[in-house]
Amino acid sequence: MFTKTQCDILINYIKSKIDNLYDSSQLVIEDKNLATFSNMIHKGFYIGMVDAKDEDIVKKGLLQENLTNIVSSADTASQMVYDYLKLQNIPRSKFQTSTIYITIVIDVQYIANPMSWDETKDGVYFMWGQDFKGFYLPYEIQRMNLSKIEVLDILLSSNKMPSSLWKIPESLIYRLVCFTIKS
Q1: How confident is the model at residue 25 (pLDDT cuts 50, 70, 90)?
Q2: Handedness of CA 70, 64, 148, 53 (dihedral sign)
Q3: pLDDT, tens only, 167-183
Q4: Under 8 Å between Cβ of 136 and 155
Q5: What is the average pLDDT across 119-140?
Q6: CA 32: distance to chain centroid?
Q7: Across the beta sheet with 99-110, what order do the strands follow?
Q8: Tell me, what's the pLDDT at 156?
Q9: In this structure, are residues 156 and 116 in contact, taking their beta carbons and an 8 Å threshold?
Q10: Domain 4-105 part of CATH 3.30.700
């Protein structure tokens, strides 16, 4: 979907944006080719951060209809990540030494069969009524290295829900069609 050059431009922009939020004397790298991301329809944008010990630090972003500017989504997610890092007193040095995952959600598709998603490239979103929602992005699923059933069980149990709730016909499961970039 994106070239390596485009991926590098976006990752450098986001890393420099968050670095600038930590220290305003740091420049934001605004490559002229960022404009290629301005009219790209997408349904979500997330930034995840994993430290050198392979521990999840943060996953923040947005999931909504009719997003049209990836740079604007990146700015929003960058601010959300920085706000969380600041609130948790996570130093700039930890941010700078962590792996950053950028996930662009291209589409969200309801799936009647809870197993009809690809654990090597899709994310999964579970919804129960109006109150509970939970999801994993592709990079999280790949790092787990588990079966689809185990991923869904863990998604629910980690959110204090019965792990088999996803098997009930009233549960709603969506496939997140994504593109992920790793720094």
Answers
A1: very high
A2: positive
A3: 887 788 899 999 999 99
A4: yes
A5: 86
A6: 25
A7: 56-67, 42-50, 99-110, 172-182, 122-128, 132-136
A8: 86
A9: no
A10: yes
Per the document, the length of the chain is 183
CB 25 within 8 A of CB 41: no
**Closest C-alpha among 128, 101, 103, 107 to residue 175:** 107
Q: Would you call 3 exposed, middle or buried from its count of C-beta atoms within 10 A (0-12, 13-18, 19+)? A: exposed
Nearest Cα neighbor of 11 from 47, 39, 63, 53 is: 47
**Residue 125 CA to chain centroid, in angstroms?**
12
CATH number among 3.40.50.620, 3.30.70.890, 3.30.1490.150, 3.30.70.260, domain 107-177: 3.30.1490.150
pLDDT at 108: 94
The model's pLDDT over 82-124, given as tens digits with 9 standing for 90+, comes to: 999 999 999 999 999 999 999 999 999 999 998 999 988 999 9
| Domain range list for the chain | 4-105, 107-177
